[in-house]
Amino acid sequence: MNTMRPSFSVHDLYLHQKITELHCASGPDLVACTVRSVDREQDGYVSCIWAYALDGSGARQMTRGPGLDQSPRWSPGGERLAFLSGRAGGSPQVYSMPRDGGEARQIGRFDESVTQLRWMPHGRALVVCSAVRVDPELRGRPSSAPPPERKPSAPEIAWRLPYKEDGIGYLLQRQIHLFSLDAESGEHTQLSRGAFDVMAFDISADSDKIAYSRSREGRFAHATDLWVCDIEGREHRQLTREHAIVMQPVWSPDGRFIAFSGAREDGDAEPKLWLLDTTTDEVRMLGDDSLDVADPESLHWTRDGAAIVFVRAWRGCHQVVSIAVPSGELTVIVDRQRQLGAFGITDRHLAYSIEHPSLPSELWSSAADGRNERQVSDLNAWWKERSPIEAEIRSFEVPDGRGGTETIEGWLLHAQGAEGPRPLLDDMHGGPASYALLDFDTNVFWQVLCARGWSVLALNAVGSSSYGREFCQRLAGHWGEYDLPQHIAAIEQLQREGIADDRVVSSGKSYGGYLSAWATGHTSLFRAAVVMAPVGNIETHYGTSDGGYYADPYYVASAPRFDRALARALSPLHHIEKSRTPTLFLQGKEDERCPKCQSEELFVSLARAGDTPTELILYPGEYHGFLGTGAPSCREDAATRIVDWLVRYSDQPSEPPEPARSEEAAGQAEPNRERAEEPEPSFAQK
Questions:
Q1: Is 667's pLDDT higher than 50?
Q2: Which residues, at least 6 apart from 421, have a Cβ–Cβ distance to it below 8 Å?
Q3: Those residues with Cβ within 8 angstroms of residue 233's Cβ, 6 or more apart along the chain or in another chain
Q4: Is pTM beyond 0.90 here?
């Protein structure tokens, strides 16, 4: 007898366990994974570390908390596991435990949070990054006096940019520096000093040098450069000067090369692979400008130093590829229609988690050549009980914004076996120099709507990365103007094919929130909209976002200057009063990436313009990532409100936007577009 499987619900977010990071040990062929799960009683999260044999022969839960155990790192040879934990109360500190289990031991004690750790290749010590308290009143000047204690009410002086960061808040009361840490005694020594932050680092195979990415000193500190020092913290030397961003550096086994992903231009969200020759200090791109590194921490040298294995973003999906050094010859190892989360390698295996609407977060492995793929973990057995969701990549013929047409791609989701015209959610991705991301934690409402008989379209329209440099950069200076017509054309194609009916709605977060809000003032296609953490007013975003001051000039293709007239014309706020689309605004109240004023300006303007249904929901204590990493109760509330709002208004026919109030008013706002015709690098991924 057939039994009906239960459908996905919003409450499934409390069941889902997610692999957030992993680290591999080649000798024993083990992988240590950080597994995050929801603590419903505390309305928070716990994370524990699991160890898996990559041949599938066994699994061991290494830690059980309490709190957040994270950043696992095997010692050379894999005999010990180091990790970060706040289990003793207060800030994350370094712990170590034997591979076969047992009690974890704290190593040393830092005054502030430890943020990263690496074993030295000789295995007797580690190098870590830790925060160091400083007095912001000194404006970056060194001082031998200890910084004064700061009360929560202490004034926050801003003497440089950036002075704040989403998810962190005020930055200038601390710096992040390198320390050496003896694995037995816990004694530690500071290796770097100055008014900068160390963002990432790696240690040479001979344990003699540290390569590190650090922010710049001075008034503009958002850019990062590659530096090197000896293991004693002496002879610090800058290696790159022409890059705006340098991400995780990785030494070659022989110490000759340092590989890193990064970009030359401020706001360029398509990181390329770069190779620095330490014998000459020459830096060159490895591969061509179509090679997008999906995860800067996925770079791994092969043991012989002949190649780098990493995760590449390609046409909205992820490939595992190998690139030969120094020739740049590219070999695709794993290529399937899906995305990857955490990634690592051993001499014999690849290890990764998979992101796909039809699959939960689990650990998978394959042979080093990509063959014999197998699922290793079974953290989310409950998923098998749900009615299956299918996801396929579809192609759409759309206008290219320049008088012609082109073919673009997108994901189409629906319940298995769904037939006939049905309601459609067009979920617009952030960035815009990103692509539709498939993780369940952020998009639980996709599965819920599909279970209710809907389809979900996640389109990679013009401006998306992973489809080539020209396709991504073409949108600069034409936000909304080039990509909204592509969304409309794709939806109309699905309607002609009998997949979608007239019940079409939209949603989006960050840049997706921008585009969803823009659409409400330009088309009557969408019967309802959910706008989340948007860029609503580019002109005010420039001065209120943690990255707006260097990214927004690229939004409007006028860098290095900021074209305020074009920013106003391209802002949803300039058009929102024409909207007749019922619109729900969702916003983290402490968001510093797209601050709450962006939603507030849109909501107030729409509410005052007429009787169009609209609501604003602010989530206290939440940041830009509230939808996927916010408090579980916030995520539940947001997903529930999204589904309820879209379902409620999808049955009501839409009204066309009102025309501009006067030709004169429209003319006054029309900017000079001479500079906007040349594509500029797009802004950093939101």
A1: no
A2: 495, 498, 499, 500, 501
A3: 178, 180, 189, 190, 191, 192
A4: yes
